[in-house]
Amino acid sequence: MKYIIAGLGSFGSSLGIALTSQGHEVIAIDSSMQKVEAYKEAITHTICMDATDEYTVNGLPIMDTDIVVVAIGENEGANIMATALFKTLKAKRLISRSINPLHEKVLQAIGVDDIFHPEKESAMRWAKRLSLRYFVDSFELTDNFSIVEIAIPAPLIGKQIATLQLENKFNIKLLSTMRYEHYEDSFGRQRSKPSIQGLATPEQVLQENDVLVVYGANKHINTFLRSVGVKVH
């Protein structure tokens, strides 16, 4: 996948390094030449550029990029201007950093697809979330074990949980399933919130919009995902 990251602060640089190490193509931009030079060996491409300058930003391959992340955190105005600019230039999926509650409302009004809070969420968690098509979210219990939320892969739709033999074949456990309910926020934009379906049962039949909540070793979860055709790194 292809990414553009605006802002090479602590979060933006960590995200760029993580995504690059997973084999993705990353274009990271920052107005500081010092930061651009510091990360040029660790991130696919680093460019010294003002993310609020329409002329220069328009030269980026935005239409060919899967996800744009605005990670600018030092300057609230620059964050808003860069986010609005990428939205105007029709980024396919636009994610921006929230600095405070009022700023978050402005980002919602602009129409970003997602908002992250670096003080609460790690760059590694977002790297995992962004790099896997079916991945929704995760909670790492240790370095090797996680609870992950996975959008149901097509081959599993209509299958009864018992027939998957997840514990016997893959040594993982399906804890529950969720579905995301859609609603309109105060700006009239479509948002979603999770609805837990309860503990998974052997006789339960998996549905098209289910999100699977799975527990296990990271390597076993990856083996399971590969078995149903999901590319993992």
**Overall geometry:** globular
Q: How many strands in all?
A: 11
Which class of secondary structure composition applies to the elements?
A: alpha/beta
Strand order of the largest sheet: 3-2-1-4-5-6
Helix content: 25-40%
* Percent of residues in β-strands: 25-35%
Q: C-alpha Rg, in Å?
A: 19 Å
- What letter string, H or E per element, gives the SSE order? EHEHEHEHEHEHEEHHEEEH
> How many DSSP H or I helices?
9
Largest sheet: 6 strands, parallel
- What's the rounded overall pLDDT mean? 84
Extract low-pLDDT stretches: none
Give the termini separation: 12 Å
What do these coordinates show?
With 233 residues, the chain is an alpha/beta fold. Helix content is 31%, strand content 29%. It is built from 9 helices and 11 strands. It has helices at residues 10-21, 33-38, 54-57, 76-88, 101-110, 123-131, 161-164, 166-170, 218-227; strands at 2-6, 25-30, 45-48, 67-70, 94-97, 114-116, 135-140, 145-151, 173-184, 190-199, 211-217. Strands 3-2-1-4-5-6 form a 6-stranded parallel sheet, with helices on both faces. A 5-stranded antiparallel sheet has the order 7-8-11-9-10. Helix 1 (10-21) packs across helix 6 (123-131) and helix 4 runs parallel beside helix 5. The longest helix has 13 residues, at 76-88. The chain is globular.
